[in-house]
Amino acid sequence: MKHSYFIYQNNPLFIHITYFTLISFAGYAALKVLKPREKLDTITDLDLLFTSVSASTVSSMATVEMEDFSNTQLYMLTILMLVGGEVFTSILGLYFMKIKLHTRGSDNRRGYSVYDIESVSSTNSGPNITHAIELPVPMSELHLEEKNQYELKAIECLGYALLVYLLVTNLGSSLSIYLYLILVPDAQGVLKRKGIGFVIFSVFTGISSVANCGFTPVNENMIIFQKNTILLLLIIPQVLAGNTLFAPCLRFMLWSFKKITRKEEYNFILEHSETIGYKHVMSSRECAYLMTTVIGFITMQTILFCSLEWSSEALQEMDSYQKIVGALFQSVNARHAGESIIDLSSLSAVVLVLYTVMMYLPGYTSCLPKYDEQHPRAEKKDRRKRRLENLIFSQLSYLAIFVMLICITEREAMTTDPLNFNVFSILFEVVSAYGNVGFSVGYSCKRQLIYDVRCKDASYGFVGKWSDKGKIILIIVMVFGRLKMFNMKGGRAWKLR
């Protein structure tokens, strides 16, 4: 039980940092060993590490073109996106919750009092379960160990449901894309010209969409499929199910399992979501507010996009139906996924500012008036400390610091190439990395004031033209953005978590 005690006592933030560090460096080592599609000397070790961190944190920021990677390297990136996605990491979180329950039970058997154990429960696992469980026997007549066993069974049932959700979403998304490719000759021709297999494209894109990473195996992302409206409509629910609407979809699955299996544990999970302590299990009221907010954001973005970009050069080859679907696809991806059907640098400043705001907002942002309820045993000193931390260490202050640091590292390029290296482009890139989205305005040789004959336009993001110091800072931003849930406490109506 020593390893359980170690995990139980450590802060979840430390566990997450360790996890993402390990898989990122493991992915870097694998990408280093595996051979690229062609013998290229342009991919540096820092670019490989950057790509590995980008895939594991599902950020899809790129410093190299995706078609430079071989199929084996693409499968490695697929694994990184899978194990770095929110659904998979939340399953690991449930594993640690089970360890806490086992530890609590062993502590009880060693003679701890009920008051001591309930204090640990209130500080580590949310509200005490003794106030919520509905059993045939009154809770007052149950021993603490029996209560822990019931909570453990509920968490195990939730783990099974999450595993099914993970398999259904990823396999279903990959299969739907594959079926579309073999049924539509036009889409087949695009991949055949690039020498990319249907299977690798389907699996890679499907898992990337569910994980909300935004990587695709082609350099142009989804631009080459902007007229394939059915493919775009297939990917949209995959993106939503993997992030912003994960909680409502999970609640629907738990409700279905309750009807099918008739297990009381599923009913307990649905009726006492706060007791479980798993943030993706929300009440029906919270899910309703979340779905309303998500749909509202998507509708607002789609209307604004169509109003301002309907006659733009980027959409001139598309008909009206394709433009509407493309605007919807772009709006859904602006929150977290980062897949794009157009060159973002061609969009108007208003749309780019809107996307910057959307990328900043966490996935579960919703207009839900809710007061922060403190546990009665919480000390006043701890509450003052929380309020002070929320005031000083805000997310916007972190972003401002990162932008200033990158402006320092790229100050020479900002002087010689101001049209590409401007403050807004850097801010857009930083917010995209922080939000783990992957949108980028890119770099254009045409915008250079002093034209460089050696300059070559590339499909990777703006960060690909940064210095090594700037890339390292953005690596930190991607990891920080993936862990932002640990600094989202607040008491406003707009709850960020």
Features:
mainly alpha; two-stranded antiparallel sheet; 21 helices; 62% helix; transmembrane; Cat_transpt; monoatomic cation transmembrane transporter activity; transport
Description:
InterPro entries: Cat_transpt (IPR003445), TrkH_K-transport (IPR051143). The chain crosses the membrane at residues 12-31, 74-96, 157-183, 195-218, 230-254, 288-308, 341-361, 391-409, 421-443. The protein is an all-alpha fold and 497 residues long. It has helices at residues 2-9, 12-33, 45-56, 71-84, 86-109, 114-124, 144-183, 185-194, 198-210, 229-242, 246-261, 264-271, 273-276, 284-309, 320-333, 349-360, 380-392, 395-409, 411-416, 423-434, 468-482; strands at 366-367, 494-495. A two-stranded antiparallel sheet has the order 1-2. The model is unreliable at 4-9, 109-144, 370-381 and 490-494 (pLDDT under 50).
Summarize the structure.
Pfam families: TrkH. This protein has 497 residues and is an all-alpha fold. Helices cover 62% and strands 1% of the residues.
